[in-house]
Specification:
With about 260 residues, this protein is an alpha/beta fold. The chain has helices at about 5-10, 30-40, 60-70, 75-80, 100-105, 105-115, 130-140, 155-165, 185-200, 215-220, 230-240, 245-255, and strands spanning about 15-20, 45, 90-95, 120, 145, 150, 170-175, 205-210, 225-230. It has a nine-stranded parallel beta sheet with strand order 5-4-3-2-1-9-8-7-6.
Length: about 260
């Protein structure tokens, strides 16, 4: 069973953290991953920097720009991660846009992910229909779960289609805006969380976008199986050392009951 699927079987809420590979410094990637696992994070999304990140807010855009300036490439990321499974046991996903993956070669990319021990991919701009027609078999051959996104605007028909093909979790985008939103959610978003919960989907849901503090984490996980923190953690890395990551994760770990 895939590590993501195994972790989703646990009863506790999932704390997933996103960070941009190669930020703040090119060689920080592995140290950040190890520290996150040591400090109670359940799953990690490793951001593959791209020059035109359409869904990302200014914080993650800025971190991607810095990572690219630092020299981060797909090849370098894979080199950095080649021995990661000697020490890290939790699920690891790569989140990025399709262009760098396509340029690298989709099957070559997936094969490398399997060799390293990557469990899944999140590719926001890869349409469901294109994935089904052209890439589903490749992902399956290399044991990779493709994680699909839904938003408050996604129709129930499409949500159920995504649910039918999903083998891991559904990435439940909290709003239609870019990443890095408000400190807490409004009534409309809270209604959305409850509405999706009431659909009784087979795939677990994990909420992302706009989760910054304990209140928003609590709100996001009231009806969902976990939450993803991205911009807030990237901002933390900008201002603090990797050795201080425990001060960031501690406040969220207390809410995972």
């Amino acid at each position: 069973m895939n590590r993501i699927q195994t972790r989703l079987q646990h009863n506790k809420k999932i704390l997933s953290i996103y960070f941009t590979a190669g930020f703040p410094n090119l060689e920080d990637t592995v140290s950040i991953i190890k520290s996150l696992e040591e400090n109670g994070v359940d799953m990690i999304e490793i951001g593959l920097p791209f020059s035109d990140p359409l869904a990302d807010g200014p914080t993650i855009q800025s971190s991607s720009t810095q990572a690219l300036k630092n020299g981060m490439t797909t090849k370098i990321l894979f080199e950095q991660l080649k021995d990661i499974r000697e020490s890290v046991k939790i699920p690891l996903l790569i989140m990025g846009y399709f262009n760098p993956i396509f340029q690298y070669g989709v099957e070559k990319f997936c094969k490398k992910c399997k060799e390293i021990g990557i469990d899944g991919l999140i590719i926001p701009d890869l349409p469901l229909e294109v994935y089904e027609e052209e890439y589903h078999s490749i992902f399956k051959n290399y044991g990779l779960l493709n994680i699909f996104l839904i938003t408050p605007q996604t129709s129930e028909v499409r949500i159920r289609k995504i649910d039918a093909i999903s083998k891991g979790f559904i990435y439940m985008v909290s709003s239609a805006s870019v990443t890095g939103g408000k400190n807490s959610f409004g009534k409309e978003q809270l209604h959305y969380f409850e509405r999706i919960h009431n659909l009784k989907l087979k795939a677990p849901q994990i909420v992302g976008f706009g989760i910054r503090h304990q209140e928003s984490f609590f709100q996001a996980t009231k009806f969902a199986n976990g939450a993803i923190i991205g911009s807030a953690f990237v901002n933390f890395l900008r201002e603090n050392s990797i050795q201080q990551i425990d001060t960031f994760t501690r406040k969220f770990n207390s809410l995972k009951k």
